[in-house]
Amino acid sequence: MVRFLRHALPVGVMVLAFAALSCLAAPPSHAGTDGTGGGDQQETEQQGDASHPDAVVRSGLPVPRFVTLRSNEVNVRTGPGVRYPVEWVFVKAGMPVEITAEFDTWRRIRDVEGTQGWVHQSTLSGRRGIVVTGQQLRTLRRDATTTAEAVAQLDPGVIAKLRKCKGGWCQVDVGGFRGWLQRDEVWGVYPKEEVGE
Q1: Mean per-residue pLDDT of the chain
Q2: Using CA atoms, how far apart are residues 35 and 54, in angstroms rounded to an integer?
Q3: Does residue 169 have a pLDDT over 80?
Q4: Which string of b and e fits 90-102 if b means at least 16 CB within 10 Å?
Q5: 126 Cβ partners below 8 Å, 6+ apart?
Q6: By the 8 A CB rule, do 78 and 84 touch?
């Protein structure tokens, strides 16, 4: 099961988060990269200012895109900066999230449940991962076919390292096992996305 903590906030706080998004339409001023640097303590380096559209910086990478959490403790905020309150904390490194917007050094992410919030780019990694979806056990197979030997059974919510995807199958590493899952059994990869090692 994917574990994270959430704290309820008044509606007024959510309005502030949406107001910050109004600046996202501004053109990029320079390119950067995601997933570089240390941990959450680097949030204070560049907070971004939602009141100044010229502060918008984009990485040059496609949005949306999937990444993973770099550490076991990632603060998710209501807006793109340390002045915004922490709404909840993710507590699982390697968990896939989808970047849905960029503002300066901040990234708005969405988790497997559809919840969104802002994190500093230093808390993200370009490595790819998946979450097993559905309500039943999923069979990890030796090859990319439904008749291949079963390697393991995976519970819904299990997180695995994504190695590659081709056609309707994705190869993953999890708990010392390597095998193939059907693409529609996981979250963290787009329907027709080709992923290589």
Answers
A1: 79
A2: 23
A3: yes
A4: bebbbbbbbbebb
A5: 33, 34, 35, 67
A6: yes
